Predict the structure.
Amino acid sequence: MYAIIKNGGKQYKVQEGDYLNLDLIDASPKDKISVEEVLAINAGELKIGTPFVEGAKVELEVIAHGKDKKIIIFKKRRRKDSKLKQGFRRQFTRVKVTKVA
């Protein structure tokens, strides 16, 4: 059984026992979170929502918070003596999928 959920403008395919890095969620570790934005669910047969499947939800348990690796953004315009260098570290919440219903 798997489900496709939406979080932070991105879609994730999840199963029970999976670990995910979602965008930062305001919750402390060991908190339980439920996601009702389920786009599709497969429990023997595929059920697709319009846009969400009614009655379906995915329960998550917060494991920890953290930061990803640094991403370097470098823009250069040739022959213009113009360049820009920026760094970015995405903050995330690590969660474990406990139940797909």
Observations:
- DSSP finds no helices and ten strands in the chain.
- The chain has one domain: 2-65+93-100.
- The chain has a mean pLDDT of 95.
- The radius of gyration is 18 Å.
